[in-house]
Description:
The complex is a heterodimer.
Chain A: E1 5-14, E2 20-26, E3 29-35, H1 37-47, E4 52-56, H2 61-77, E5 82-85, H3 91-100, E6 104-107, H4 109-113, H5 116-125, E7 130-139, E8 148-150, E9 153-161, E10 166-171, H6 172-182, E11 186-191, H7 203-212, E12 217-219, H8 226-234, E13 239-242, H9 244-247, H10 253-262
Parallel strand pairs in A: 1-4, 1-13, 4-5, 5-6, 6-7, 7-11, 11-12, 12-13
Antiparallel strand pairs in A: 1-2, 2-3, 7-9, 8-9, 9-10
Helix pairs in contact in A: 1-2, 6-7, 8-10
Chain B: E1 3-8, H1 16-24, E2 27-32, E3 43-46, H2 52-58, H3 63-69, E4 75-78, H4 80-85, E5 86-89, E6 99-100, E7 105-111, E8 120-125, E9 127-128, E10 143-148, E11 150-152, E12 158-163, E13 167-173, E14 179-182, H5 190-208
Parallel strand pairs in B: 1-2, 1-3, 3-4, 4-14, 5-7
Antiparallel strand pairs in B: 5-6, 7-11, 8-10, 9-12, 12-13, 13-14
Amino acid sequence: MLTKRIIPCIDVDVDDDGDPAVYTGVHFEDLQYTGDPVELAREYNAAGADEFVFLDITASAEGRETMLDVVGQVADECFIPLTVGGGIRTRDDIKETLRAGADKVSITTGALERPELITEGARAFGNQCIVISVDSRRRYDEDGEHYVEVDGESCWFECTKKGGREGTGVDVVSWAAEAEERGAGELFVNSIDADGTKDGYDLPLTGAVCDAVSTPVIASSGAGSPEHMREAFEAGADAALAASIFHFGEYTIDETKAYLDEQGVPVRR
Amino acid sequence: MNVDVTVIDYGVGNLRSLRRGLERAGATVTESSDPDAIRTADALVLPGVGAFEECMRNSRPFHDVLREVAEDTPVLGICVGLQLLMTDSTEDAPEGDVVEGLDLVEGHVTRVAGDVKVPHMGWNTLTVERDHPVVADVETGDYAYFVHSYRTDAGEHTVASCDYGGGFAAIAANERGNVVGTQFHPEKSGDTGLAVLDGFVSFAADWNAGRTPLAD
């Protein structure tokens, strides 16, 4: 039986000495240092993670070099799928990242600014490696296309750019359907509202995207416990991503999977 | 003994993990984009990513030599690489028609059917259907990582099957057993995948030493 995937996410930046380091944040800000990315990947691999996501949160060119180097080191040791995101804008960026050892690339701003990138990437490297990532933000005005009822209020979800700092006016649900149409192999759904809160995923968001597409959906942002992951799966997600609950040792991957297994969620153990 | 495994490089993206996985299994790995150079390899690996028709087109310079060496060399196809080894595929073919494959393993590739999400992406369980060196250390219930939208129905060729919208071949082989392929990615399937690569490399070593367990 196809299992639901548990994916630890590692935000990688360079520290003051130029070495790669992992950070986690709240609402995409206030970053805290949590460790060495290659070491973390090795631990997660041994602990039974189903995949890794690496997000390059550096903007500099050196940061990018460092990142690709880390990707290679991880790919050499961990025989599970590796998705890399951050700053991917062109076909060459996709190629370079895959060549470094990534199996999939996650694209946010690059695809919003030039949707053809999805089609080009899918054609050149296969749909399976093009993951379209959205950084959603709830809006309670009249400008959206798809509305959901949340606590008695009607809201829609807007795609943001630059790590949530810039709005786009694009409706997440419409964009997800378009991305699928253009060849995205997977959708990675982040929420600015839920990020770092540990109050659970933005379930209305997860559900709305899952209803709109038939490609796999990864729920992200807000996980504080294995129960939250179960909720995301019930909302239709195929994979649940988490960063801080694993990095800070609040739950192990094994504890998470044991809980899900007990709850009847199929997981790889 | 040392085994030289040549990975056929016809422009398929990331071969890094595959190379590392084969090296861990004890092989000396060469990536080659020269059809003549693959003739002398102890074993060949045919990777594949993307669409069947495009992979068929891009791998065309290798077809003759592949057909020739497949007579007496272990060949491992991975994902679309397995599909290329089969008789034909309906992917990107006009309605009711097929695109021809290498026909080294008899079978037809069709789209994942049933009430399931496509692509089939993630970890799914294997059921071992018959003996083959690549499954020497694989048990029914072990998980492998799949990413694909097309597959071939489970049948005579099936060494291990998987169920997703119906049973399909997760590992298939020809009658003699030297041409084999996995629909999943062994280089991304954790310990189970490494066991399959180990099995293939040991098989290639035995085959080349004349101790061919499956020879007819």
